[in-house]
Amino acid sequence: MGSVALTGGNFEQTVTRDGIVLVDFWASWCGPCRSFAPVFEQAGERHPDIVFGKVNTETEQGLAAAARIRSIPTLMAFRDGVLVFSQPGALPAHALEQVIQAVRDLDMDEVRASLSEKSTSR
Length: 122
Fold this sequence. Notes:
It comes from Micromonospora halophytica. Belongs to the thioredoxin family. The chain is of the alpha/beta class. The protein has a single domain (3-120), classed as 3-Layer(aba) Sandwich (Glutaredoxin), CATH 3.40.30. The chain has helices spanning 11-15, 31-46, 61-66, 93-105, 108-120, and strands spanning 3-5, 20-26, 51-56, 74-79, 82-88. It has a 5-stranded mixed sheet. The termini are far apart. 26% of the residues are buried.
């Protein structure tokens, strides 16, 4: 399927949908971003049921700031509208596959219960 360009206009609508959405925050001047890009694209081809989105932090500075991006590349994973993973740094292909499998294996009822507990204990 390939990746989808995410902007301030479509980011929230994309990450809050059902299923898994992986988001790569990147910039063209960033060497590690350029090395991670083909790994991300190839994973997108292997997993057509997952949305692979890319946020260009140069053109979407407000979105990057709102997402609290401090270093790039940063990979975020959303499942059923919930942020379940966020990590800066370029991942090798096998590590990205491990993240994808871990996100697939999540018990979302447990995740939501844990989030609910945390929000009521504040």
